[in-house]
Design goal:
There is one protein chain. This protein is mainly β. It has 2 domains: about 30 residues, no CATH class; about 375 residues, Methylamine Dehydrogenase, Chain H (7 Propeller). It contains 2 helices and 30 strands. Strands 22, 23, 24, 25, 29 and 30 form a 6-stranded antiparallel beta sheet that branches. α1 runs antiparallel to α2. The N and C termini lie far apart (about 45 Å). The N terminus and C terminus are likely disordered.
């Protein structure tokens, strides 16, 4: 670490007065503290891992869950006509397994984790018959049979306390499919159809007895569903402002009572929603070039959210939720079109996946100012994904390249939110 210029001048001038030395030293220390305060939110790319090697190339990772206790994350992949799950070891970082799903289980688009029972559920967006796949994390095997015959699924949340999962559909009008997990797949799923115009549910969060689904509409719509009153009377919706369109990612802060939805716009916009009372609180436009927010994850303990962009290269923007400002971002050459993300708050790492062929998972250090290390040079091809599924991706994909990361600091020039009334 180099000394601040003020300290260097102090030493060069050979100033001997103790009072002057103390004054200049105090100024120098203050200057150093200011530097630290401006860089504390730095993001650093640690390494990338590719999913192109045998036994299976895995592209377009569009859904993900993380099990930090067992040092693993799981990413749903779509490669041509093959759906699969990639198992990623968090440390040391790398792929340690791949599982090919059954016939017709191809376009993996959503996922939830039931940690206590060590299972995950992955929804697909296949037409005319989508599926919900149960994955045993201990054996890393699909639990058969799956639930089939559903409309295309594009988002999901889980109520582990009451053992239900809720999947949003990519249809118009949209529907919410409630799945009882205790008897999966014996008991039938229950479907709640929404009103006209409330369609294409591409993001979702859950908090305090309600599920919140973001619609890929213009303007966007946030639909709130009471989990204790899973009927049309338990549904309320808020239409956002013009320009706040295509709600393709979301995170929730249940303690402070807010949800944050990322838009499919250029630049991307993060819309802050109050949970109680339910309504739009404000919005934050991200920096130029931080477009199309197709992935998001957060650390509620430290109060930060991280939104990944659908750009080349991909960008991760860090938001301070307490002030609702953007405080840092990182542009990652070689990792493009982020489609999903998960966070390990215990170790301060986030994992962002790309919607490329082959897929790449980027490991982001959420604390460090260290230069990027690691990475493998590999060709990255353009996105290979059917356009109807472009927006509904709320998961991860992966590829590998020489790591080139540029950190963009925002100190005095933080982007602040529009906190106008809805």
């Amino acid at each position: 670490m180099s000394f601040p210029r003020g300290v260097y001048i102090f030493r060069r001038c050979g100033i001997r007065s103790r009072k002057t030395r103390f004054t200049l030293l105090s100024v120098g220390l203050l200057f150093a503290l200011l530097i630290v305060s401006q860089t504390v939110n730095a993001l650093t790319l640690t390494s990338l891992v590719t999913l192109s090697t045998p036994p299976l190339q895995q592209d377009n990772l569009s859904a993900s869950v993380i099990d930090t206790v067992h040092n693993s994350a799981y990413f749903g992949s779509t490669t041509g006509s093959i759906g699969s799950i990639a198992k990623i070891q968090l440390s040391p970082f790398g792929r340690v397994g791949s599982l090919t799903l059954g016939s017709g289980e191809v376009h993996v688009s959503s996922a939830v984790l039931d940690f206590s029972n060590q299972v995950a559920y992955f929804g697909t967006a296949d037409t005319p018959s989508a599926s919900i796949v149960k994955l045993n994390l201990t054996t890393f095997q699909e639990v058969l049979p799956s639930i089939t015959g559903l409309p295309p699924l594009s988002s999901a949340v889980i109520d582990t306390a009451n053992q239900f999962a809720y999947f949003g559909t990519y249809t118009s009008p949209g529907s919410i499919v409630r799945v009882p997990l205790k008897s999966f797949p014996t008991l039938p799923a229950t479907t709640l159809q929404l009103n006209a115009g409330q369609g294409y549910l591409t993001s979702a969060v859950i908090a305090n007895g309600f599920a919140y689904f973001g619609a890929d509409t213009s303007p966007g719509i946030v639909v709130r569903v009471s989990l204790s009153n899973f009927t049309p009377s338990g549904v309320t919706a808020v239409t956002l402002n013009p320009g706040e369109s295509g709600l393709s990612s979301a995170v929730v802060d249940p303690v402070n009572g807010f949800a944050y939805f990322g838009t499919h716009t250029s630049p991307g916009i993060v819309v802050k929603m109050g949970l109680t009372p339910f309504g739009r609180v404000g919005s934050l436009s991200l920096s130029t070039g931080e477009n199309i927010l197709t992935s998001a994850t957060n650390d509620t303990y430290k109060g930060f959210a991280y939104f990944g962009t659908f750009t080349n290269p991909g960008i991760v923007a860090q938001l301070d939720l307490s002030t609702f400002t953007e405080v840092a971002s990182i542009s990652v050459a070689g990792a493009s079109y982020f489609g999903s993300a998960v966070t390990d708050p215990s170790s301060d790492f986030a994992y962002f996946g790309t919607l490329t062929s082959p897929g790449v998972v980027a490991k982001i250090d959420l604390r460090s100012n260290n230069p990027p290390v690691g990475g493998v040079t590999l060709p990255v091809e353009p996105l290979v994904l059917m356009l109807p599924y472009l927006v509904l991706i709320t998961g991860v994909a992966v590829a590998s390249v020489v790591v080139v990361a540029s950190y963009q600091r925002r100190a005095s020039g933080r982007r602040r939110a529009d906190l106008s009334s809805p």
